[in-house]
């Protein structure tokens, strides 16, 4: 009898801290409130990095307006901790029903590692039909698709055309030598060609990848595949060496604003909106946000000039975000109905307009006309575009090695070979 | 007179309390026993939470140091591979060196400055209460919030560079937090600024226990200011020195938020510490196993230096 009591006490002693630990870490299963099958409620999580309403939220609000019986709970998360938050919630079983993810495997929110851990639900044919050509491997495996692309994001640079003209840049440089010359001219007049957030790793990494577009991926769009098969390495790639050498040349030519190495993202917004800098390495849709800060300026999306004007042009244009459904969701039907609605051409067009991006469907017949994407229209129509390279890299450490390495190039702490070797080491 | 009477009354009470009436001994003992039992049960929720939060969580985290877990999904036990990777990676070794440099430098400078301020504000000075508050203020303020203010001060367009330009020293203006040579020193300045007030308060508490009479006696015997400090004051505040340096080292070794806010570990890892690396590996780069291994290394280093430091500064070997 006494033994029984002691056993009970021991179990209690062990159970209390365990229960407390579970309660404290939030491991208490899904918190969704709907009922199995018939619920019209679901939750949506997405990243935000400013006070402007997220396009994901705006689209969902339109869905609620069109379907008054549906209730969507928004779980906006700060962009810098989004990956970690989503992963923790998925692990704990209390993530939102619909999650905004990224295609590929290069970031913490990427689809492939989440599929590997059985956290995402396979999607319907409507999602399959929106996967951009050539990006199938980034959206799932074994013929199943786990992400629905909402738009095509062009990543090159966003330029303030009004500021460029005011600074004497009547024609955008056609090659790298022309770019260096323009940089020197602008630098001597107290301005800069580029506004760079040198202390923000995502920006330095994006710059290096933009330089690699024409030096690596224009001639060899399957370079990442070769790297995966160990047929090449970053350190052995002349294209990657040239890309990072170009960073040093741009720095020497005064292409960046003074103090760029220590600048944050605010330097880009400030520089482009005020016109003290002409361009920045930021995703295409940013043109629309910049327009709200400087309504009198014209912002356009451009591809970075190649080494020589005769080199093949190339720009990154791909679905950088995706809607995914949490495999542990109790409101899958409601979530799938929303995704089916969002996949309709009318909605894909609306979403692209809200975000200032290109629509995920009907790109071949898209009228680039005189809009923000007029300068990259030919490249896209000719098929000279591809997905962001890091979406195909095996982990986020490779991109981190590139981004921090570029910081080291700017400050003179690292050599090109050191950066490329670090990227190879991170690839594993 | 009142005091004498009071002490007599207390003595009488104590004497009465000490006396036991015949036959009451067993009752008192049994009441004492039940009280003891009750205390044990009352502590159980606290004990359980401490075990769950500190020991169970730490133990599980320590286990993951020997796995290749990415933070999600399944994992494999990889033995000491994560530790081998740490000691082969120049970035991690650089982070280790930075951690030790920042911890010991901030403790040394912060404690010297704290002691000087404590001595200066110990007596005499009329404005000492206001000054004490001002010097202690950085300890009370949020380290993250103040780090952002410092970030603005050290910014390329910030007040320091504006001042340098205004006096014609434009060549000295630089992006302080992005300069490979200067970044670590700017971080050190912020850490010392934040820790000096804490050391000052501990030293002031220590100084209060140093008898004025001995200092006066030493002065009458002809001891100068330095001799009085070295032979009377410093031995008197030795326990305070032990506390201030131990807490300072532990705090300095695990410093995280000011560095993340100021430099994020940059430029190119120049201000990376073990704590920032733990965060990056575990949460930003999805290498939870590597991050846990680093955290374990950091915990061992903190324990090692805390023990060494305690042994070096304790005044009595039997303490």
List the helices and strands and how they pair.
The complex is a heterodimer of chains A (428) and B (319).
Chain A: H1 2-25, E1 41-48, H2 55-66, E2 71-78, H3 82-92, E3 98-101, H4 111-116, H5 125-128, H6 136-139, E4 151-155, E5 157-160, H7 161-166, H8 176-188, E6 192-195, H9 201-217, H10 223-228, H11 238-252, H12 265-274, E7 277-280, H13 286-293, E8 299-302, E9 315-318, E10 322-325, H14 332-342, H15 345-355, E11 358-359, H16 377-381, E12 385-386, H17 396-411, H18 416-427
Helix pairs in contact in A: 2-15, 9-11, 9-17, 17-18
Chain B: H1 2-18, H2 25-64, H3 81-88, H4 90-120, H5 128-140, H6 143-154, H7 159-166, H8 183-208, H9 212-220, H10 225-236, H11 238-253, H12 257-262, H13 274-284, H14 288-313
Helix pairs in contact in B: 2-14, 3-14, 4-8, 4-11, 4-13, 5-8, 8-11, 9-10, 11-14, 13-14
Structure commentary:
The complex is a heterodimer of chains A (428) and B (319). By secondary structure, chain A is of the alpha/beta class. Chain A contains 18 helices and twelve strands. Chain A has helices at residues 2-25, 55-66, 82-92, 111-116, 125-128, 136-139, 161-166, 176-188, 201-217, 223-228, 238-252, 265-274, 286-293, 332-342, 345-355, 377-381, 396-411, 416-427; strands spanning 41-48, 71-78, 98-101, 151-155, 157-160, 192-195, 277-280, 299-302, 315-318, 322-325, 358-359, 385-386. In chain A, the strands form three sheets. Chain A has a four-stranded mixed beta sheet with strand order 2-1-3-10. Chain A has a four-stranded mixed beta sheet with strand order 11-4-9-12, with helices on one face. Chain A is globular and about 65 Å long. The model of chain A is unreliable at 1-37 (pLDDT under 50). By secondary structure, chain B is mainly alpha-helical. Chain B is built from 14 helices and no strands. Chain B has helices at residues 2-18, 25-64, 81-88, 90-120, 128-140, 143-154, 159-166, 183-208, 212-220, 225-236, 238-253, 257-262, 274-284, 288-313. In chain B, helix 13 (274-284) packs antiparallel against helix 14 (288-313). Mean pLDDT of chain B is 83; it is low at 1-30.
């Amino acid at each position: 009898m006494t033994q029984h009591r002691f056993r009970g006490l021991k179990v209690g002693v062990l159970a209390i801290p365990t229960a407390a630990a579970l309660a404290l870490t939030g491991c208490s299963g899904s918190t969704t409130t709907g009922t199995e099958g018939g619920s019209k409620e679901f939750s949506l999580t997405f990243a935000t990095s400013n006070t402007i309403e997220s396009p994901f939220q705006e689209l969902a609000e339109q869905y609620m307006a069109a379907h008054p019986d549906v209730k969507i709970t928004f779980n906006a998360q700060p962009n810098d901790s989004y990956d970690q938050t989503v992963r923790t919630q998925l692990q704990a079983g209390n993530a939102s029903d619909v999650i905004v993810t990224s295609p590929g495997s290069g970031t913490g929110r990427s689809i492939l590692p989440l599929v590997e851990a059985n956290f995402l639900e396979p999607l319907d044919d409507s999602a399959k039909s929106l996967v951009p050509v050539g990006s199938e491997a980034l959206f799932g495996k074994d013929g199943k698709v786990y992400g629905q692309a909402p738009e095509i994001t062009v990543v090159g640079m966003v330029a303030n055309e009004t500021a460029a003209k005011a600074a004497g840049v009547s024609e955008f440089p056609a090659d790298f030598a022309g770019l260096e010359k323009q940089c020197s001219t602008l630098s001597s007049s107290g301005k800069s060609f580029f506004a760079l957030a040198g202390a923000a790793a995502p920006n330095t990494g994006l710059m290096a990848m933009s330089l690699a577009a024409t030096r690596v991926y224009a001639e060899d769009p399957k370079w990442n595949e070769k790297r995966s098969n160990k047929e090449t390495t970053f350190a052995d790639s002349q294209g990657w060496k040239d890309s990072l050498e170009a960073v040093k040349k741009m720095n020497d030519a005064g292409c960046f604003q003074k103090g760029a190495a220590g600048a944050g993202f605010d330097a880009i917004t400030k520089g482009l909106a005020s016109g003290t800098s002409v361009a920045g390495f930021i995703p295409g849709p940013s043109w629309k946000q910049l327009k709200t800060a400087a309504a009198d300026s014209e912002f356009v999306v451009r591809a970075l000039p190649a080494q020589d004007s005769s080199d093949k042009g190339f720009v990154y244009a791909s679905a950088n975000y995706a809607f995914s459904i949490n495999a542990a969701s109790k409101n899958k039907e409601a979530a799938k109905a929303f995704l089916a609605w969002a996949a309709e051409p009318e909605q894909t067009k609306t979403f692209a307009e809200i975000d200032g991006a290109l629509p995920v469907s009907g790109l071949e017949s898209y009228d680039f006309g005189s809009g923000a994407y007029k300068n990259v229209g030919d490249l896209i129509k000719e098929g000279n575009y591809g997905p962001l390279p890091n979406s195909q890299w095996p982990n986020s450490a490779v991109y981190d090695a590139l981004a921090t390495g570029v910081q080291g190039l700017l400050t003179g702490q690292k050599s090109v070979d050191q950066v490329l070797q670090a990227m190879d080491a991170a690839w594993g | 007179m009142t005091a004498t009477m009071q002490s007599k009354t207390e003595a009488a009470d104590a004497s009465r309390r000490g006396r036991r009436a015949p036959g009451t001994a067993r009752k008192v003992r049994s009441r004492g026993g039940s009280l003891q039992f009750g205390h044990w049960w009352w502590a159980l929720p606290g004990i359980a939470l401490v075990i769950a939060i500190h020991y169970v969580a730490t133990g599980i985290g320590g286990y993951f140091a020997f796995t290749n877990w990415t933070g999600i999904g399944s994992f494999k036990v990889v033995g000491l591979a994560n530790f081998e990777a740490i000691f082969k990676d120049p970035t991690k070794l650089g982070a280790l060196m930075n951690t030790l440099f920042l911890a010991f430098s901030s403790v040394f400078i912060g404690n010297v400055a704290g002691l000087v301020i404590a001595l200066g504000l110990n007596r005499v000075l009329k404005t000492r209460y206001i000054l004490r508050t001002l010097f202690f203020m950085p300890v009370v303020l949020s380290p993250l919030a103040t780090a952002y203010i410092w970030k603005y001060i050290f910014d390329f367009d910030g007040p320091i560079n504006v001042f340098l330009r205004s006096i014609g020293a434009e060549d000295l203006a630089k992006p302080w937090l992005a300069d490979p040579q200067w970044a670590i020193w700017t971080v050190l300045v912020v850490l010392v600024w934040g820790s000096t007030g804490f050391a000052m308060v501990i030293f002031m508490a220590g100084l209060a226990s140093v008898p004025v009479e001995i200092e006066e006696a030493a002065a009458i015997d002809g001891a100068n200011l330095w001799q009085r400090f070295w032979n009377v004051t410093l031995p008197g505040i030795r326990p305070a020195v032990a506390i201030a340096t131990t807490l300072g080292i532990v705090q300095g070794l695990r410093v995280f938020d000011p560095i993340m806010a100021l430099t994020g570990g940059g430029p190119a890892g120049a201000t990376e510490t073990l704590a920032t690396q733990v965060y990056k590996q575990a949460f930003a780069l999805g290498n939870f196993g590597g991050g846990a291994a680093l955290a374990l290394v950091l915990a061992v280093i903190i324990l090692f230096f805390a023990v060494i430091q305690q042994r070096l500064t304790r005044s009595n070997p039997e303490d």
